[in-house]
Amino acid sequence: MNTDNSYSNGFNDDKTVSFFSKVSPYAKQNIKETAYLIIIDSERIIKTVELNKNEMTIGKHGDIVLHSSIVSRIHGKFTEYMGEYYYNDEGSLNGTELNGTQIRIEKNVPSKKYNLGNGDVIKIFVPDNPSHPENVLIIFSTGSVSNSKWSYINLYNKASPFFIGRSVTADGLRIESVQASKIHAIIYRTSNGFYIADQNSLNGVAVNGKRIFENRLLSDYDVICIANTKIIYLSGYIIFNTSPNGVRLEINNISKTVNSNKHTILDNISLTINPCELVAVIGGSGAGKTTFLNCINGYEPATSGTVCMDGLNLYDNYSLLKSRIGNVPQSDDLYDYLSVYNFLKFTAMLRLPKDISKQERQNRINDVLEIMGLEEHKNKLIKKLSGGQKKRVSIAMEMVSDPDIFFLDEPTSGLDPETETSLMKQLKKLSSEIGKTIIVITHTLQNIHLFDKIVFLAPGGRLCYYGTPASALEFFNVTTISDAYEKVRNNTDYFVEKCKKYQ
Ligand SMILES: Nc1ncnc2c1ncn2[C@@H]1O[C@H](COP(=O)(O)OP(=O)(O)OP(=O)(O)O)[C@@H](O)[C@H]1O
Ligand SMILES: [Mg+2]
User: Fold this and answer.
1) Would you kindly state where each structural domain of the chain is located, as residue ranges?
2) Beta pairing, strands 162-165 & 150-154
């Protein structure tokens, strides 16, 4: 592989070529991540460019030169700030789409900066012409947790149908996730072009953010989502990430009203949770934490606003996305008279694709037992477990189907401080080493330093802080976060306003 910062790969071989090797495995240790753009310009070659300066513009005259005729001289800008990457449109003529949403509101007026996550798709497109040859597609990619590898396959050099799934041969595209069915989808060739067809999979196929129910002719730049894998179609090629990780959650202006809209219990909250982050939701009792969690995990949708998981609207695509979500409510929903192993076995039989073999199922259960530190308890009846062990079984139950994002409502309530610390450390490990995005409501703050971010809710479901635990002390001007509760109660409006400016 070429080691220059920028190089090209022509569409001239059919091998699965890894575009990346230079990625940081140290995402969570606050070491600056390496970020790359994969650019498919009007020349139809795939370029990989490293974002190696704090600010880099794209455009005909940009730091990164784009050749397409529909791109403005300075079209957009990538900014790095404190290890996070942002993109904004610089007020271009044709605008920029980020994960399917047009972000440039007015010509000549720069858009706001959008925080980027691994696998985000940026498009500069001819309006209403998704397969125009001058269209430009850019994928943002970082090395977080495990190595991120983008590859491509030339479908013209493959047999038709081309198989995609959990256990297809090396000649197809293998998706290493129990969220995928054995043969999940096929792509077949006709005189009109390539079609994709869902093969009656358990968790479905989405094209450009919508689940498909019929065979669909692929257009250039279509973004296909299968389980946790994003696949981009372009001129008979598919470009895909072979080791995706975590999920990014964008929460846009969500509110919840009850009693015929008379009473607001969640008030216009917007924030973005990045892949593999461990996020705490805190605030006084009745502030709206459970309401917030149930809105952002799709369980009880918000009255207004949107929630996007990796660019897909969660409420519109819940049936497609629910297999990627693990939800651990406050009360454990376990069967007392089953052993831990049998309980997980029944869960696996219910939640995993029906085509999974007994051996695969056993392997998955054993992996989960190991990850959750439950091996030594696997033959015990659930009834006999301690509170902390039961909580770990509740998480293990959700782990069975290998979701990418977890929501936990007060998992440590009722646990002694030592057990709480051990559980929180386990959650930290799940996010930073296994690569899950985890959101946890908690009342206890002794382990708050383990979290990457805190969502602080004030009474009435109002956001009064979102950021790191360390910066929270400065934000509230306190020495411990517990001191912030009283301040927030007495000066709610002040902190809500300050938070709007801070974000
Ligand atoms: N369906 C509903 N109808 C009316 N009020 C509701 C409804 N759901 C929640 N509430 C109210 O909204 C507020 C927030 O409730 P929520 O359960 O989200 O709080 P919380 O922060 O999780 O509290 P706790 O820390 O005690 O669990 C509370 O005042 C609650 O009574
Ligand atoms: Mg609650």
Assistant:
1) 1-148, 150-244, 249-331+404-502
2) unpaired
Fold of 150-244: Tumour Suppressor Smad4 (2.60.200)
Which candidate, 6, 34, 356, 25, places its Cα nearest to that of 166? 356
Place of tokens 């991540």: 33
Give distance in angstroms: CA of 447 to centre of ligand 1. Answer: 25
Q: Please determine, for residue 40, whether its predicted confidence score (pLDDT) is greater than 90.
A: no
Strand partners, 35: 142
Q: Tens digit of pLDDT for each residue in 295-306?
A: 999 999 999 999
Q: What homologous superfamily is domain 249-331+404-502 in, according to CATH?
A: P-loop containing nucleotide triphosphate hydrolases (3.40.50.300)
The protein residue whose alpha carbon is closest to atom 2 in ligand 1 is 258
User: Can you tell me the distance from the alpha carbon of 90 to that of 104, in angstroms, rounded to the nearest whole number?
Assistant: 8
Q: Is the pTM of this model over 0.90?
A: no
Tokens 């400065």 sit at which residue?
Answer: 474
Residue with CA at minimum distance from ligand 1 atom 3: 258
Q: Order of strands across the sheet with 462-467?
A: 325-328, 405-409, 437-441, 278-282, 453-458, 462-467
DSSP code at position 383: G
Q: Do domains 150-244 and 249-331+404-502 have the same CATH topology?
A: no
* Ranges 32-41, 372-381, 454-463: which has the least confidence: 32-41
User: Measured in angstroms, how far is the CA atom of residue 281 from the centroid of ligand 2?
Assistant: 10
| Cis peptide upstream of residue 161 (ω within 30 degrees of 0) | yes
Q: What are 392-403's pLDDT values in tens digits?
A: 899 999 989 889
C-alpha distances out from residue 487 to 25, 466, 494, Å: 39, 16, 10
286 lines ligand 1 (CB under 6 A): yes
- In CATH terms, 1-148 corresponds, of 3.90.180.10, 3.50.50.60, 2.60.200.20, 2.70.70.10, to 2.60.200.20
Cα–Cα distance measured from residue 130 to residue 220, given in angstroms and rounded to the nearest whole number: 7
Q: Does residue 31 have a pLDDT over 70?
A: no
Sheet holding 173-174, edge to edge: 173-174, 162-165, 185-190, 193-198, 216-217
Q: Give pLDDT, residue 30.
A: 40
